[in-house]
Amino acid sequence: MDIKKIYMDADALLEGHFKLSSGNHSQFYLQSAKVLEDPKTAKLLAEELAKEIKASGIEIDTVCSPALGGLIAGFALATALDVRFIFAERVNGEMSIRRGFEVKEGEKVLMCEDIITTGGSAMEAASVVKSFGGEIVGVAALANRGFCHREGSDIETKPNCKLPQDIPFFALADFTFEMYAPEECPLCKDGSEAIKPGSRGN
Ligand code: ZN
Q1: Which CATH number is 118's domain given?
Q2: pLDDT tens profile 146-188
Q3: Number of domains, the chain
Q4: The domain containing residue 55 runs over which residues?
Q5: How far is the CA of 29 from the centre of ligand 1 (A)?
Q6: Residues around the ion ligand 1 (C-beta < 5 A)
């Protein structure tokens, strides 16, 4: 499955000058929501990811995503794995699990994002799951930005990866384009201004 082609066909791999949520700048931005707006594509991607996860043999009771970015991918993956789906959300900046969702002691939970960059949000949500006694058995995402090692890829884990190294990370593809600290950004040096994705209709 050619994930890059799927993102490009959906106009979800944006080229320009972007300010990422980490504060870094990049020439590219992945807008997974655009890929997932077609439920058939969402289903197809989730089934492909589920196949890989099932082949690994890990046991999963529940998929949990951090809102908002991970919701659609997580729901589609839970459907493909035929397990429960819950989500964590930020309230006043703090990740929490609300809406009557319960996590049982020893429940095996797979964290799911649309894209893993350093995995920070996924791990914040995971720490809430663990505080209820849940066990994090793996992490999954449609795409990997290349900072963390995923199953089946020869990309090695970078120091800023926040995913634990003792559980598997599954993703369909690596997107390893460069990110720059603002003061070192060549696009800024060329005189253009970084925009926040979403701020101008993207
Ligand atoms: Zn820049």
Answers
A1: 3.40.50.2020
A2: 999 999 999 999 998 999 999 999 999 999 888 899 999 999 9
A3: 1
A4: 38-175
A5: 13
A6: 25, 185, 187-188, 194
